[in-house]
Specification:
The complex is a heterodimer of chains A (about 290) and B (about 220). Chain A is α/β, with parallel strands linked by helices and about 290 residues long. Helix content of chain A is about 50%, strand content about 10%. Chain B is mainly alpha-helical and about 220 residues long. In chain B, strand 1 (about 90) and strand 2 form a beta hairpin. Classes of the chains: A alpha/beta (about 290), B mainly alpha (about 220).
């Protein structure tokens, strides 16, 4: 049996083993990856960075733990950027396990923003991020399309209280905040169909600036909305999150994760190339033998 | 009457929703908000119905000891445990039940079960995809024809677009792929999908499509 026959019959457990080894090595070997920023991600960063203090950013955390690796870093980077810029944030979580993800992100970021640090070349004094003053977490309600439509009329239709049970009218930052008209932009971080609902029922009907943070496999699907102007920016997968972290000068989970993702991609590409070499050689030999 | 009333309700609701979209008058907005309130409530009931259905099916499976009934025990245990932790809390040495307020959401067991059980389980399941994709790509991604070769080449370029080894040219090519051929194809799909949705909605509103009543 030639080496090419062996390549064609390679047990998939070798693929698994090799990929595992590369992922582990990528994680433990300390090296940096130059991250180039695309216009799709840059426009989100620039938009948030240009907002005056006190403006409200609406962040929809519509993903479950299965998408944590790609989307959680985006949430962290955007939240920290917004809080350092003294913006206020409204959160919702319209996927079943979204509230837990949002709750975790809020706990972590409110801690990290309390520390003094240099952020994008500017010295930021740490400050306390207070629920109801700096952010409001509205929580989860089933049937996202209905909730998105109702929030366009009034946040209070679907969320008379926030996630923690406080009536919206008693929350200082929500006074005078009625619906999407009162937010500067909405960023949907999603790993599923909720994004379609935000575009169709939310942006299509109420016409607010919408940006998307998506898993890598979803990204290509949403380019038409970017081109039509319905969406002003897209962050795609871990790479999108890494680009945001790079622009914000806030290296975190995504830039760290890229050190694993990149060699894993190279391994997959190498396996595809090796498989095709084996395929062509075997086919050529069969053709010659056939003659 | 049992058949006609639902048709009339669907027709009126559907027609009103179309009408109010184009006529944002104060009165139509009022009715619209009223309907949205209803929908939210119905959504809540549907969720309760789903939970009840899960409990009934799992209970039935356990009672009759059907195949894999042990999984149903785990399902129900997880469900009731999370419900219990979500409405109770143990603070300052006193135990409390909080059904109408949110103290239960900060119950450390509720938070820990999510953070240290659910998140790792779901993240692990999804992570396994990378291994299956690698294996499947190795065995099935072959340049058997011109079309397959183009697909293969496009996939490799997009996957490698930000690899520092290849430099900026691959990024330029990948951006072109995403912004021109991909955009054109996706837009065609989206427009086709949109037209299909409009046609289906009209068929339902006009009573031509009656699948929602259990009729073809």
């Amino acid at each position: 049996m030639s080496i090419f026959d062996r390549l064609m019959r390679l047990d998939r457990r070798w693929v698994f083993l090799f990929l595992t080894a590369v992922c582990i090595a990528g994680y433990y070997v300390d090296y940096s990856i130059p991250i180039r920023v695309t216009n799709e991600t840059r426009s989100i960063y620039t938009f948030i960075d240009s907002l005056p203090p006190g403006d409200i950013v609406f962040v929809a955390i519509d993903y479950d733990p299965s998408n944590q690796a790609e989307l959680h870093p985006m949430t962290y980077a955007i939240m920290e950027h917004a809080f350092r810029k003294n913006l206020k944030v409204i959160f919702t979580a319209l996927s079943q396990n979204g509230p837990g993800m949002a709750d975790q992100a809020i706990r972590d970021i409110t801690d990290s923003v309390s520390l003094d640090r240099t952020y994008n070349g500017v010295e930021f004094k740490g400050r306390e991020i207070r629920n109801g003053i700096d952010y409001t977490f509205l929580g989860y309600k089933p049937y996202y399309a209905i909730i998105i439509l109702s929030m366009g009329q009034n946040f209070r239709i679907s969320f008379p209280t926030d996630y923690y049970g406080t009536p919206l009218d008693s929350i200082p930052m929500m006074r005078g905040v009625l619906n999407y008209d009162n937010v500067a932009c909405l960023i949907d971080l999603s790993g599923g169909n909720i994004t379609d609902a935000w575009i169709s029922y939310g942006q299509g009907r109420y016409n607010f600036p919408l940006a998307l943070g998506l898993t890598g496999v979803m990204t290509a699907q949403y380019y038409p909305y970017l081109n039509s102007g319905q969406v002003f920016g897209i962050m795609g997968g871990m790479l999108g999150a890494a680009q945001y972290e790079r622009m914000a000068d806030n290296p975190g989970l995504a830039i760290d994760g890229m050190r694993v993702q990149l060699p894993a991609h190279i391994v997959i590409v190498l396996f595809i190339i090796i498989g095709n070499i084996g395929y062509f050689v075997t086919r050529r030999r069969e053709q010659l033998e056939g003659r | 009457m049992r058949r006609q009333l639902p048709f009339v309700l669907v027709f009126l609701s559907g027609f009103f929703m179309i009408f109010q979209y184009f006529v944002p008058h104060q009165k139509s907005e009022f009715v619209y908000e009223f309907l949205l309130d209803w929908l939210t409530i119905i959504g809540g009931f549907a969720m309760a119905l789903g939970i009840w259905s899960l409990i009934r099916v799992s209970y039935d499976r356990i009672k009759r000891q059907r195949e894999n009934w042990g999984y149903s025990v785990i399902t129900l245990t997880g469900l009731f445990l999370m419900m219990f932790f979500g409405i109770t809390n143990w603070e300052d040495g006193s135990f409390g039940v909080y059904i109408y307020t949110a103290e239960g959401l900060s119950n450390s067991m509720f938070v820990h079960f999510f953070d240290f059980i659910l998140i790792p389980i779901q993240a692990t399941m999804f992570s396994l995809l990378a291994f299956f994709i690698a294996s499947a790509a190795y065995r099935a991604f072959r340049a058997r024809s011109v079309i397959a070769s183009l697909l293969l080449l496009a996939a490799l370029i997009v996957m490698m677009r930000f690899n520092p080894i290849f430099g900026a040219w691959i990024e330029t090519v990948a951006n072109w792929l995403m912004n021109v051929p991909n955009l054109a194809a996706q837009r065609a799909i989206v427009i086709g999908l949109g037209l299909g949705m409009v046609a289906t909605a009209l068929k339902i509103i006009l009573g031509i499509e009656r699948g929602y009543m259990g009729q073809g």
